[in-house]
Amino acid sequence: TGFVTLDTGFKNTGSTKSKITFLDGEKGILKYRGYAIEELAAKSSFLEVIYLIIYGDLPTHTQLEELQAEISKHTLIHEDMKKFFDGYPSRSHPMGQLGSLIFSLSTFYPECLKPNQTAEEQNLTIIKLLAKFPTIVSFVYKKSLGHPLIYPKNKYDYVTNFLWMTFGQRTEDYDVNPIVVNALNKLLILHADHEQNCSASTVRIVGSSDCNLYASVAAGIAALWGPLHGGANQAVIDMLELIKADGGDTEKWIAKAKDKNDPFRMMGFGHRVYKNFDPRAKIIKKACDDILENLGIDDPILEIAKKLEEAALTDQYFIDRKLYPNVDFYSGIIYRALGFPSEMFTVLFALGRLPGWIAQWKEMHENKEPIGRPRQVYVGETDREFVEIKDRK
Ligand code: CMC
Predict the structure, then answer these.
(1) Which residue of the set 328, 365, 383, 391 is catalytic?
(2) Which protein residue's CA is at the shortest distance from atom 39 of ligand 1?
(3) Ligand 1 centroid – CA 218 distance (Å)
(4) Where would you find the membrane-spanning parts of this chain (predicted)?
């Protein structure tokens, strides 16, 4: 009925009005709530950016302390949730576990299901998710190693607490390395939101049916997992390892990426919106050099990544299609330097993107948006006659 505009992949369809993130793909500009990403990455902490993205303004000192204190009350997860960790096969992918566990929060904290939550109730649902998410991510990691779980220590700030649960020893305090804490803060800030990307749009569309926050975010985790979206950060490292094992012949892999008969794509390259340098990639590349140097790490795949980037940026195929390195190209090299295995990279992306998903879900409610329900252009059969099964050929 009526006229339907076809836009597969929503390349040119605005689905909402938003005040969260501004992105100019031609100029390579990214801002959260009006603040340039470069400045936030250099001067802010992840918790400050969480506050900014979800509540709209940078917090005062008191507001930041209050947020930290509220989060600290909810960092534990229900003990029964630990049974899930025992149930997953030991080598199952952390993203599969994370999605299921976040979905399951809706069963352990069913107050999230209440329709028309008051502002306070909604905020408590949000705080619980912010508080439990890092705990769940760390538990997933610890279980993958077969190590005992490390419980949160509320004397630590948000990012340090996550590092403690992930890398700490049970009986000792975490030996806080400011280089690692700063690097992780920076990476998480750079991932915090990115307007109507695949996972954020998923969270909004699931939430638009009045679905609770935890299930909506679990849907976002599923969308993020794919290698064309957040899964690209793991795929980049896998690709660089492959190229290294293959003798480091970057030209050969560039040729493969250009070959339309070869399904291989240069992972960590290209973007739906950026037709210029991804501003996040610029910051991450510089951070990557600094962090590896400061930690005294010499990772041979960094050299391969740089060679690949250089070759791609001067190649006509990449120039014509405006394909530049994106956020995922160098982030994995940093995560690896901080001690994370590659299967954890997309989970770390999810941890960073959490405030964005929450803010998108919250804004969708504040805007009183209708249920998301795109149309289609039907191109299938019409008017067929039913044939009894015995007569079908
Ligand atoms: N390697 C080789 N060719 C590419 C690549 C690539 N990475 N990306 C795009 N192209 C080509 C593509 O084949 C097409 O060529 P042609 O016009 O000759 O058919 C042209 O460039 C346009 O690509 P597209 O697939 O139509 O663009 P899109 O906007 O639909 O896809 C993308 C965007 C990010 C999915 C894609 O660039 C890609 O697959 N990149 C690799 C995966 C990746 O790094 N994803 C992370 C994205 S950024 C962070 C995030 O979202 O999580």
Answers:
(1) 328
(2) 228
(3) 25
(4) none
Place of tokens 């566990």: 101
Element (H, E) at 358: helix 345-366
Q: What's the average model confidence in pLDDT over 348-367? A: 98
Domain ranges of the chain: 15-370
Closest-CA residue to 228 (of 9, 8, 6)? 9
Residues flanking ligand 1, CB < 6 Å: 9, 197, 228-230, 232, 257, 265-272, 321, 323, 326-328
Instruction: For residue 269, give the DSSP letter.
Output: B
Whole-number percent of the chain with pLDDT over 70: 99
Q: Is the pLDDT of residue 169 over 80?
A: no
Token pair of 390 as six digits:
């015995």
User: Is the per-residue pLDDT at 170 higher than 70?
Assistant: no
Closest-lying ligand 1 atom to the alpha carbon of residue 198? 51
Average pLDDT over the chain, rounded to whole? 95
- The total number of residues written for the chain in this structure: 393
Residue 49 alpha carbon to ligand 1 centre in Å: 29
**Closest ligand 1 atom, residue 321 Cα:** 21
Whole-angstrom Cα Rg for the chain: 22
Active-site annotation holder among 191, 229, 271, 278: 271
Q: Does domain 15-370 have CATH number 1.10.580.10?
A: yes
d(CA 235, CA 328): 9
What is the ipTM metric for this complex?
A: 0.97
348 pLDDT higher than 60: yes
Helix (H) or strand (E) holding 22: strand 21-24
CB-based contact 209:32 (threshold 8 Å): no
Ligand 1 atom nearest the C-alpha of 270 is 37
Sheet holding 21-24, edge to edge: 21-24, 29-32, 35-36
Question: Which residue shows structure tokens 């190649």?
Answer: 315
Continuous segment of H or E residues that includes residue 32: strand 29-32
pLDDT reported for residue 141: 95
Cα 147 to averaged position of ligand 1 atoms, centre (Å): 39
Element (H, E) at 36: strand 35-36
pLDDT tens track for 221-239? 999 999 999 999 999 999 9
271 is catalytic: yes
Tokens 């794919």 -> residue? 226
